[in-house]
Amino acid sequence: MIPIAKPIIGEKEKSMVIEVLDSGIIASGSYVRKFEEKFSRYCNIREGIATTSGTSALCVALKSLGINSGDHVLTTPFSFIATGNSILYCNAKPVFADIDENTFNIDPDKIEEKLREDDKINTLLIVHLYGLPCNMSKIMKIVKEYQIYLVEDCAQAHGAEFRGKRVGSFGNISCFSFYPTKNMTTGEGGMILTNDKEIAENCRLYINHGMSERYKHETVGFNYRMTNIQAVIGLCQLEKLDKLNSKRIENASFLSENLSELEWLLTPIVPRGYKHVFNQYTIKVSDRNSFVRYLSKNEIGYGIYYPKTICNQPLYRKLNLYERFSVAERIAKMVVSLPVHPSLSTNDLDYICGKIKEFER
Ligand SMILES: *Cc1c(COP(=O)(O)O)cnc(C)c1O
To answer: In which residue ranges of the chain is pLDDT below 50?
Structure first.
């Protein structure tokens, strides 16, 4: 079986974890500070706050902006559930704008439509889905014009760039995940980035019981602190991130060169000026059921990200948050992600392309 994802953990990660274990400082500590510094510097941002997951990072990021009941937060309906749930954690209302069918990302024209009809929206939460940046020139223009906060969900896009600028450096605040399927991992883990000192201070409060000094609690906080064990893995992974991403990009080019001749599927596009880091390599097919059955039979791992829009999930329907999106709902029925991770061998890639070419519809 060729898996859809596989983290690469080297000898350095293993020896550093043992070093941390032997030190006895196995919760938060100096390695966490160092990881925050190194990761924020990588994205050219001043403040980094390490957390327990991408989900807790998103939750704290929105809370740190003061988002609360009465606020509407605009986001994409086509993402992992955590993107939408982070808004619910703040008791705010998630509202959605449809996606672009070619990039899978939120459509700037649809953002403007929503902003014109809903003046309670004070925040835009974008997702650089599969590792492809959103159209940041259009989005920066919109957030300036409407004077709303911009939050970036970069959980799938570590190292991705729009016109030479890294994702995570556009918004008021941005969030990353280090889950094992992402471009770099700490097991579980997350990171918040911001250039705003006050927002960063709020984040540090929220991840540590709302505590400003020892046993002085200012707000209902959480325990969302990263550990030294995770941080030291993150430091090793960050050193390799560019290399791991290059391999993903190489693998994606190989897949596209071999698959683009097939008229029954559509390979992913990379617009000029965008650096796509291929957390996922996602194709569109019309008869998905028989295709994924064929992949399974041939021991090729795949993923369907995502089979339903967020607002079409039972939870969102119960909360009366369902909205119909013609593009996102159609795309949700067509997408299939193929293995593209850096552990793939040339043999694996040849095998995947060979089998897909032999698929008879
Ligand atoms: C993975 C992911 C998250 C959540 O990150 P976790 O670390 O798994 O909590 C949020 N948003 C997107 C788009 C993701 O892919």
So the answer is: none
